Amino acid sequence: MPAVVLIGAQWGDEGKGKATDLLGERVQWVVRYQGGNNAGHTVVLPDGKKFALHLIPSGILTPGVTSVIGNGVVVDPGVLLEELDGLERQGVDTSGLLVSADAHLIMPYHVAIDKVTERYLGKAKIGTTGRGIGPCYQDKIARVGVRAQDLLDEKILRQKVEAALDFKNQVLVKVYNRKALDPDQVVDTVLEHGAKFASRIADTRLLLNQALERGETVLLEGSQGTLLDVDHGTYPFVTSSNPTSGGASAGSGIGPTRITTVIGILKAYTTRVGSGPFPTELHDDMGEHLRKTGGEFGVTTGRSRRTGWFDAVIARYAARVNGITDYFLTKLDVLSGLEKVPVCVGYEIDGTRVDDMPMTQTDVHHAVPVYEELPGWFEDISECRTFEELPANAQAYVRHLEEISGARMSAIGVGPGRDQTIVRHDMLG
Ligand code: IMP
């Protein structure tokens, strides 16, 4: 049986939590492979119970599923405990959650540096979530990071934190004029948190590969989205990891030949949080309408999301760099009630028409969308459960997107609930 990857095809916030939750009943393992608590998934269960998850895989809400925080994830120990606590208070059994021994830990100095760096950048800021994600990945790549397994060896942990703070305190104090952090205090807090989840630290790459060998299905859940990928996104306005499907292998220890399906989550329009280019962005009432109707406010930071029309250049690009086999089109219901629905089919850059993602960031910044207008629909589609029940114009919208986006539209979201989904093709079949 396969490993299945689920990724965001745009700039994140496409509704991946809902998709994972939907598939969760048919898989035995759900794994997060990159990012940290910069993510935010909202899941609404059929009984109306709503959960906002940041770090823990959405699989935690499905009984019997083992949830894994993979080696590619960066974990803030305090946040992990808070999230576990919150879930347990809502009656969720969290006993199945495992944390890779190789996952890097977000330390208090990462959060401090993230915040001061953004302030220092001023207008050129990335608009990070301020959770310490970038600085933690910097330490990982610089080979001075602290990993979950270091919680099991106090001596090593102390050595690492002292060495890190030797340097970082200089930066905090001398460059940014902030207070130095006390290494003993940092270690004591991290150890106190660590003691509460030490039993969850595991060799998850071994367990996942053994599970695949037993014939179990593993769902690898990406956070953020394709255009926030540090290699394939709108650099430098990206996150510091690889949300694209290639990252799933590195961030979990599952070999690429095991992955048979890549599901792209694609919103029926586009949103982005933070700075950076966004060709189809709307700055008018229509942008406000999409934001309000779609509830486009961040789960993690509460920030308003920037909104715009669907962009097929992005979808084709996502299909290509991720090897998408199926699309899950979300939030189609948000477009109900519009006379016409514009869809961006290409860009015009300095007078030249292009159909593919430009090679340079300069061109991405200069891209002017070329739109086709499709007829809208006025019916409430939130109760539709088959494709045929959708109004003819909504069907035509989906079919058109399918033709220009590079993969079949196998599922369609018509509301936030787990059951508000139209399945056209079995994505795990
Ligand atoms: P960081 O991941 O906090 O370093 O932020 C880098 C960029 O990624 C910023 O533009 C954030 O707004 C964006 N970002 C990070 N996580 C998410 C997410 O889950 N959804 C949407 N944007 C995100």
Question: What is the element layout, followed by pairings?
Answer:
Layout (H helix, E strand, L loop, with lengths): L2 E6 L7 H9 L4 E4 L8 E4 L5 E4 L12 E4 L4 E2 L1 H13 L7 E4 L3 E2 L2 H14 L11 H9 L12 H22 L7 H15 L3 E2 L1 H10 L4 E4 L23 H6 L8 E9 L2 E3 L12 H9 L12 E3 L1 E2 H11 L3 E5 L9 E10 L2 E3 L6 H6 L1 E8 L16 H14 L2 E6 L7 E3 L6
Parallel strand pairs: 1-10, 1-11, 2-5, 2-10, 5-7, 6-8, 7-9, 11-15, 14-16, 15-19
Antiparallel strand pairs: 3-4, 12-13, 16-17, 16-18, 19-20
Inosinic acid binds next to helix 4.
Description:
IMP binds at residues 13-16, 38-41, 129, 143, 224, 239, 303. With 429 residues, the chain is of the alpha/beta class. It folds into two domains: 3-93 and 203-423, Adenylosuccinate Synthetase, subunit A, domain 3 (Adenylosuccinate Synthetase, Chain A, domain 3, Alpha-Beta Complex); 104-199, Orthogonal Bundle (Adenylosuccinate Synthetase, subunit A, domain 2), CATH 1.10.300.10. It has twelve helices and 20 strands. Strands 9-7-5-2-10-1-11-15-19-20 form a ten-stranded mixed sheet, with helices on both faces. A hairpin with a 2-residue loop joins strand 16 and strand 17 (352-354). Helix 3 packs parallel to helix 5 (154-175). The longest helix is centred in the middle third of the chain and has 22 residues, at 154-175. The protein is globular. Bound molecules: inosinic acid (IMP).
